[in-house]
Write a structure and sequence with these properties.
By secondary structure, the chain is of the alpha+beta class. 36% of the residues lie in helices and 22% in strands. The protein has 7 helices and 9 strands; from the N terminus they run βαβαααααββββββαβ. A hairpin with a 4-residue loop joins strand 5 and strand 6. It is globular. The two termini are 26 Å apart. The mean pLDDT is 97.
Length: 230
């Protein structure tokens, strides 16, 4: 039986303009790769590359929304690039999307398509529940790919579990603690936008994420919270 998991958002963060949907998928079976997903990935990235440029990235309204969020909490957009913008820059430069495993590759692909920030966290590694709030500087932050804990300053929005560990800083960096691996079967998903994100676009992104994940990794989805349907 799956343990309970809840998610909540502080009203101060909502006032900044953070918008999103937060869901859990259980009963997942992850894979290193999948042949049909490879076809979809290649087809989709080719289509994205056909119209992708530094100008289109700079002028995209969804990406601009993240930059405005960073301005609101006084964080540098040069040092803190929202994950979808970072993925698009990598795709433009390398002509390829970074690859990890199918669960991760799916949400990264949907992030590229939607320009929203997507992430997944292994529920078995999350302590208690997840809270989206402003940091106070006491939190633990161990960035994904880092060999050590990094400090975090007060006043920025972050996803924090009940042990005061950050699992995602802004929508910029996830962490080692909750990273999705091949054995992961229970995920908490973040689908985050900004005040530029419409409910229709959020719907499309959530449905695309669930559909692709179900097709290649199975699982059952449960939407825990939406900022437009509290």
């Amino acid at each position: 039986m799956n343990r309970p998991l809840s998610f909540d958002v502080d009203s101060i963060v909502l006032a900044l303009g953070v918008r999103g949907a937060y869901l859990r998928m259980t009963g997942l079976t992850n894979h290193a790769t999948a042949a049909e997903f490879e076809r979809i990935l290649s087809q989709t990235t080719d289509a994205l590359l056909a119209s992708l440029s530094t100008e289109s990235i700079a002028n995209d309204p969804e990406l601009r929304g993240f930059r405005l969020l960073h301005d609101a909490v006084k964080r540098s957009n040069k040092k803190n690039v929202a994950s979808p913008e970072n993925l698009l820059n990598i795709l433009l430069q390398r002509r390829l999307m970074p690859r990890i495993n199918v669960l991760v590759d799916i949400y990264n692909l949907v992030s590229l398509e939607s320009r929203l920030a997507l992430g997944a966290h292994d529920v078995d590694k999350i302590a208690g529940d997840v809270h989206l709030r402003l940091t106070n500087g006491s939190e633990t932050f161990w960035p994904l790919g880092s060999s050590e804990n990094k400090g975090v300053s007060a006043g920025e929005y972050a996803y924090i579990d009940s042990s005061n560990d950050i699992i995602c800083r802004l929508e910029v960096r996830q962490v080692e603690k909750t990273k999705v691996e091949l054995h992961t079967s229970d995920c908490f998903y973040i689908v985050q936008g900004s005040s530029a994100t419409s409910s229709t676009h959020l719907d499309w992104t959530v449905n695309r994420l669930i559909s692709l994940t179900h097709s290649f990794c199975g699982g059952t989805a449960d939407v825990l919270y939406r900022t437009d349907q509290k």
